[in-house]
Each structure stands twice: as C-alpha cells, then as structure tokens.
C-alpha cells in the first residue's frame, strides 16, 4: 500500500471520466486561468509561495491536490484574493460530494432512506427532475417495494426490504403535510419503465394523475414529442433542495453539489426543462395513455 500523501483531499487516482476527476480538472482549470491572466509563470508563483517549482505543475496536472493555504496563496499572487473562498469550496465539494453507495448501503437500505430525513425536513421547496423512474416522494408502496427489491438483488445487499419500504414511505409525510412546495418534472419515458408488473404500474400512474391536482405539488410531464432544438439536454436526474444543494445519483455513488455557482446552472437547466413539460389536463392525458400501455 502506498503511503498517504499529506494534505490529499481527493480519492487517489479516480477514473478519468469519474465526477471526482472531472471536478478536480475543473478546479485545476480555474487555477490555470488565474495564473494566465496574471501574466506570471508557474516558477514565479512557486518562488512567491515558497514551494518547490514542480508543485505548481503537479497541481495543474492533478498529480497533487492543493490545500486551503495553497489556494489562498495562489489567488493572492494572481491578484484575485476574492476568488479564494469560491475555489476552496469547490475543492471541499470534490472531497465530500462523491459518496460511495457501497459504504452507505452496507447497513441496509433502511439506513439509506432514513439518512435523508434531516435534509427533507429542513427543505421548503423541492425541485425534482427524473429521467427514468418515478420520484420516490410520489411512489406507491407497490412501486417502492419492486424498485428496492431490484436494487437489493442487483447489488447483493442485506435484505431489509420491509423496513426500507416503510422508511421511504414515511418520508412522504413531508409532502403530504402541505407545508412544502414540490415542483416535479418527469420524462414521459419514465412512465414506460415498469416495476412490479402491470397492476402496480397502473396504480402508480393513477397516483400521479391524482397528484396533478394537489395544491402544493406542480407535476409536469415532458412528452416524447417535446422539441428540444436549442434546448439543453440533461442526461441525469437531479433534485434541488431550496437553494442549498443539488443531489444527483450514479450507479455506484451519489454526488452532492453545494457550490452556489454550480447550483445556479442546475436551476437554469430545471427552468428550461419546465418549459418543455405539460401540466394539468395535458399531463393527465399522457398518464392515461401510459396506463393503457399496462392494460
């Protein structure tokens, strides 16, 4: 086992296409741009900061991760001390945002479901975009059970299905209380991804039809036929919690985004997607058509 490198905040050598590595590269690009705008060289930065000349290159090529002090020194030298806090937050996000599911799921899916309760209870406005499944907050018991059973089998997790289902359904009280606002956008394709068989899907689609009339929920369906010309195409589902954070899930991990500049990008994407969606009677017509698919 190689010795741990002092000050390293990132996982060692993640895959090149992983969110961690992409975020590290984005931070390095920001630092490179600051240095370029200052008109100075990496060697000059190193002399000013009092570190080895190779350290600048190692930071920019992702060999070494910068510390908080490194970033402050870098920004000060480049005449941009006001950028330090933003870049430090970006660095900290890299180290904390990428959470391996295997570690969280080891204790069973019930604990995963319950871990979201504090965040849900302090959030007043939820903005949800789902590409391929019904959002958990709107799922019926049958749909929840079928979906979590699939996850347990695929990932070979400890089987705590009844407890996990109960924990997920219990979280829905946050929506049913009426004290919070939910804006939910679902791709029409998600209505055709079946869990639990035809009867379960018909029940789930009937639930969604009813939800279109709930006062604290705005449910939009993005039709297959929506014209996306000149529109942003978003490949991953994501949830926005107030203006505090964005969470998106991968097959093996969950990524949490708390940097305001990045959250604003997701908010802009959500607004664009909302313009593509249909609501009310038009949404119910799509739901009814999907229900016939399961007849």
Please characterize this protein's 3D structure.
Residues 1-24 are annotated as: Disordered. Pfam families: DUF5753 (PF19054), HTH_31 (PF13560). GO terms for molecular function: DNA binding. Residues 121-288 form the DUF5753 domain. The chain is of the alpha/beta class and 295 residues long. It has two domains: 19-96, Orthogonal Bundle (434 Repressor (Amino-terminal Domain)); 106-293, 2-Layer Sandwich (Endonuclease, Chain A), CATH 3.30.870. The protein is built from 14 helices and seven strands. The chain has helices at 19-38, 42-49, 53-60, 68-77, 84-97, 101-105, 109-114, 117-122, 141-155, 161-171, 173-176, 198-211, 260-276, 280-293, and strands spanning 98-100, 125-130, 181-187, 217-222, 238-241, 245-249, 253-257. The radius of gyration is 23 Å and the shape is elongated.
SSE diagram, text form:
Blueprint: H1 19-38, H2 42-49, H3 53-60, H4 68-77, H5 84-97, E1 98-100, H6 101-105, H7 109-114, H8 117-122, E2 125-130, H9 141-155, H10 161-171, H11 173-176, E3 181-187, H12 198-211, E4 217-222, E5 238-241, E6 245-249, E7 253-257, H13 260-276, H14 280-293
Parallel strand pairs: 2-3, 3-4
Antiparallel strand pairs: 1-7, 2-5, 5-6, 6-7
Helix pairs in contact: 1-4, 1-5, 2-3, 4-5, 9-10, 12-14
InterPro entries: Cro/C1-type_HTH, DUF5753, Lambda_DNA-bd_dom_sf
Pfam family, one: DUF5753
Protein name: Helix-turn-helix protein
């Amino acid at each position: 086992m190689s010795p741990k490198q002092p000050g390293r905040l990132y996982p060692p050598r993640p895959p090149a296409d992983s969110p961690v590595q992409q975020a590290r590269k984005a931070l390095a690009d920001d630092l490179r741009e600051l240095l370029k705008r200052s008109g100075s060289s990496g060697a000059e930065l190193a002399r000013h900061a009092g570190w080895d000349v190779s350290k600048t290159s190692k930071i920019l090529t992702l060999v070494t991760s910068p510390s908080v002090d490194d970033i402050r020194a870098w920004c000060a030298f480049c005449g941009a001390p006001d950028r330090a806090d933003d870049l430090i937050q970006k660095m900290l996000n890299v180290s904390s945002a990428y959470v391996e599911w295997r570690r969280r799921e080891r204790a069973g899916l019930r604990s995963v479901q319950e871990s979201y309760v504090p965040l849900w209870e302090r959030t007043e406005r939820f903005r949800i975009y789902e590409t391929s499944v019904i959002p958990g907050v709107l799922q019926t018991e049958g749909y929840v059970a079928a979906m979590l059973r699939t996850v347990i089998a695929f990932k070979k997790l400890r089987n705590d299905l009844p407890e996990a289902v109960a924990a997920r359904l219990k979280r829905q009280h946050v929506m049913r209380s009426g004290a919070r606002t939910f804006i939910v956008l679902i791709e029409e394709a998600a209505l055709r991804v079946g869990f639990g068989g035809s009867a379960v899907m018909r029940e789930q689609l009937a639930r969604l039809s009813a939800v279109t009339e709930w006062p604290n929920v705005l449910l939009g369906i993005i039709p297959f036929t929506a014209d996306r010309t000149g529109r942003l195409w978003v490949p991953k589902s994501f949830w926005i919690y107030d203006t505090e954070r964005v969470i998106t899930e991968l097959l093996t991990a969950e990524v949490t985004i708390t940097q305001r500049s990045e959250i604003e990008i997701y908010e802009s994407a959500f607004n664009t997607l909302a313009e593509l969606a249909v609501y009310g009677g038009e949404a119910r017509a799509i739901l009814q058509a999907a229900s016939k698919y399961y007849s």
